Known about the structure:
The chain contains five helices and three strands, in the order αααβαββα. It has helices at residues 8-22, 27-47, 57-83, 104-116, 142-160; strands spanning 93-98, 120-126, 131-136. It is mainly α. It starts with 7 loop residues before the first helix and ends with a helix. A hairpin with a 4-residue loop joins strand 2 (120-126) and strand 3 (131-136). It has a three-stranded antiparallel sheet with strand order 1-3-2.
Amino acid sequence: MRTWFPYPLLSAGLLIIWLLLNQSVAPGTIVMxxxxxxxxxxxxxxxxxxxxxxxxxxxxxxxxASVAVDVIRSNIAVMLVILRVGRRAPNSGFLTVxxxxxxxxxxxxxxxxxxxxxxxxxxxxxxxxxxLLFHVLDMENEEVWLQTVKRYEAGLKEMFG
Length: 161
C-alpha cells in the first residue's frame, strides 16, 4: 500500500484542495483529483524531501495560535498604513537577522509565516552566514520585528528539535 500512496496525508490533502478549488464533487473531478494527488505523491517521493518530525503537539498548537494572532495584528497594521497613506508615508525597510535553524522544514515553515504575515516578505536566506533578509512595509520599531523573528525561531526550534 505504501508504494501506491507514499505520502497518504499529502495525497489526501491535495485531493481535498483540488475539490475545493474546483468547487465540485462530480465523479470526473474526483477521478482527476485522485490521479493528480497520487501522481504528485510519487513525484514528491522522487524529490526525497527531508524528514522531520515535529514534537510537542501542545507547543505546536500554542505556536500556531501565536502566529494567527500576529497575522491578525499585522492585517490591522497594514490597514492603518493604507488608511493614513496621505498623512505619513510608510517607513519601509529591509532587515537582516541571524537565525540558527538547521531543519529545512522549520526554515520552510518560517518562510511561509514571514510571507503570509501581511506587511512582511521573506527575501533571502544565506545558508553560510545563517542570516535571513526580509522586507517590512512599515518599520516603526526595528527591534520589535527582530524579536518577532527570534520568537518564531525559538518556537520552531522547540517544535522541530
